[in-house]
Amino acid sequence: MVEIKTDTALETMREAGRVVARALVAVREAAAVGVRLRELDEVARLVLTKAGARSPFLGYQPSFAPAPFPAVICASVNDAVVHGIPDNYRLRDGDLVSIDCGAELDGWAGDAAISFTVGTPRPADLELITATQQALDDGIAAATVGHRIGDISHAISTVARTAECGMPADFGGHGIGRQMHEDPHVPNHGRPGRGFPLRHGLALAIEPMLMAGGRNDYRTDSDGWTLRTIDGSRAAHIEHTIAITQDGPRVLTLP
Ligand code: MG
Ligand code: MG
To answer: What domains, with CATH codes, occur in the chain?
Structure first.
């Protein structure tokens, strides 16, 4: 079922989104060569706690997962695409890091992700991040009243194809509101003019995940969570929660 949000609900989602944005800024500032992923999770936890927000990630266990998720962020490094568990790994010079974070405030959720490099970046990684950001920007730009979900998907997949990047076929964005994951699914691959019609008050998480090797298949780590590229190439993942409004798309997870 797709829930259309009231303007009041969207204001609360905006506050949850601000908490997510603050957590991501804090994590990015803390990330440096030698810092452990587990420490980045602690940074995000502190921001959520101070804001009185609950983490929708911590303890989350979808059907594919063998165990509840143990952290408030996903930390996916280099060939990890999404759902990386922040562990004792220490960041190295040139790492490409994607951090995904969610927050629930007064019963409403926000969800966003950033990708960045640590130390001296590889030029190819910067290009990958730029393409992923462009895919998100174009996806958001297509999220207007009168369009359909497929228009968002098509905008994202057009950028990925131009950049000669792959995207995991069965992971994408989603409706969001009282729950972090709600209907409708927002595929990253799709055809224009198809799917659920976009209306004022629909809230979506849009999240392109680009894999530099160009393939759409992936593998799952032995931890049952981490998605990795099949060819060892690097991946980037950038996400915003947005609301579709009469006045155009409104990004809820900006600072
Ligand atoms: Mg997310
Ligand atoms: Mg999401």
So the answer is: 7-251 (3.90.230.10)
